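Tokens as discussed.
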């Protein structure tokens, strides 16, 4: 794993949360995007070299809606950048981690993503992100 790619925060209302994070970080969101397959709308902020992803549910049965109903708003996941997501998933599986999606899928911000089950990562949902090459 190369670095922390971003920290994902589940929010009830993206518009309200965008205003709050603009005040908090002193910068505007640089990208908003909907990932229909996951039932989520995202907004990204940069703070120095770090990124924050705000996640708002667009469907009542989406993972973010379920998370907020169970735990409320707050830190949802930590994402790590990887060069080769498939080989990293194979390595982690051999190490005993439970993979939530064996095949990486297209996520927000031009990334292939996959998740590790929190029961094998001390209760933290871990996301792996690989930049999708445009070539």
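Sequence:
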């Amino acid at each position: 794993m190369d670095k922390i790619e971003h920290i994902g925060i589940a929010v009830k209302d993206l518009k309200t949360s965008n205003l709050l994070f603009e005040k908090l970080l002193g910068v505007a969101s640089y990208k908003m995007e909907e990932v229909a397959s996951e039932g989520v709308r995202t907004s990204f902020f940069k703070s120095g070299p770090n990124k924050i992803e705000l996640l708002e549910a667009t469907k009542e049965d989406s993972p973010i809606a379920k998370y907020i109903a169970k735990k409320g708003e707050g830190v949802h996941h930590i994402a790590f950048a990887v060069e080769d997501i498939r080989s990293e998933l194979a390595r982690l599986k051999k190490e005993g981690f439970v993979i939530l999606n064996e095949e990486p899928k297209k996520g927000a911000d031009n990334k292939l993503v996959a998740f590790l089950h929190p029961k094998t990562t001390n209760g933290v949902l871990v996301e792996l992100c690989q930049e999708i090459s445009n070539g």
